[in-house]
Amino acid sequence: MSSIQLPSRDRLILSIMGGIGILSFIIIFMNDDANHTRVWTNLLHNTVFFTLIALMAIFFICISVTAYAGWNVVFRRVWDAMSQFLIIGLVFMTIIALGVYFGWHHLYHWADEKVVATDEILKGKSGFLNKNFYTIGGLGILATWLFFARKMRALTISEDDHGNENWTHYNSMKKYAAAFLPIAGFSSAAVIWLWVMSLDAHWYSTMFAWYTAASCFVSMIALTILFLIYLKSKGYYQNVTAEHFHDLGKFMFAFSIFWTYLWFSQYMLIWYGNIGEETVYFQTRIRDYPVLFYGNLVMNFVLPFLILMRNDTKRKYGSLIVVAIIVVLGHWMDLFQMIKPGVLETAAHEMVSHVSEGAAQATTEGHQAAAAVVEHGGHESSFKVGNNIPGLPELGLLIGFLALFFGSALHFLSKASLTPKRDPFLQESLHHHV
After folding, report:
1. pLDDT for position 353
2. Stated pTM of the model
């Protein structure tokens, strides 16, 4: 099948979505605090979300190759194209990492050496939570993911033109895929701890990486469904049938339940243990983020479970589109509540320290800073859009990142055949039947 050619109308829609994202970023920037906490938080939030989705795309390709899975070969190039967002993710994470290294922002409590010097818990974690590892280690891991994504793409495209009966290219893909799976498994946990969990630096959960990875995996499946339905509406991927969508629907259904199992297991163990250092994580979210905390379960479990429970709803475009949109938005909001409380707590500590240092110099400024603590992170703060729940600018920035993500995927889809023509399992995929 030939490569994709995007209609001018669709390019215009993508441009408008990108414009909404840029405008939203400007609005956030102009209405932010002195440290631009909201800007940096949104950049981290969306970058991590879509970068991990891109990782899950190449991860699933490698699982399929090593497991000799043939059912998804006909549309596997979609995952291949989605994985190339790692290039953009590397750029944005480089900006964030440089911000940590040079102190451009105050997202992470442990990045302040003065705080670490007087905090025994942070001092004990400093071998892992430090500027050098965040910058060199985190970006090195991301670059490694990108290397494998590029290598797997190069091999499958080369197979289209130079494939042979000995399956030389496919055998090479198996070797790279087998090497990548353990690397991705361990390194993804490390960066999830580093990028997200360390925002609440005193708290940790051994299930956190599994939980976040499951969230991004089911989001990747949801975006795949939306992308394929869009491409089919434009006349592409006519060989992708209800059988393929049925399998994708089953994955979305199954991993919504798996995510819920992890959510409940993490919550139940911490609740039952009733240790203050652990329960504070959920107490903060139940008290200050009730809409997101309880809405999280409704959007990411209850609705997908009820809608996709029937067999036929996994094959119907309408139900798949509705659930996929709910899942993507629900897990994006879940990541918001995973990131925002820790960032605001760090911002509050930062402002309190400024109050203490500047009290003798400017009482008025001190009162203003103290008021800002209440507004941006104090425990007595009132409900505020942008802090306790995403506001319109946050949703606008999400739209912008979606444009960037799909625009990137469409770009790479246009550079090669939409289907790997000489993949040894192509015929199995074309005749796939559940």
Report:
1. 63
2. 0.93
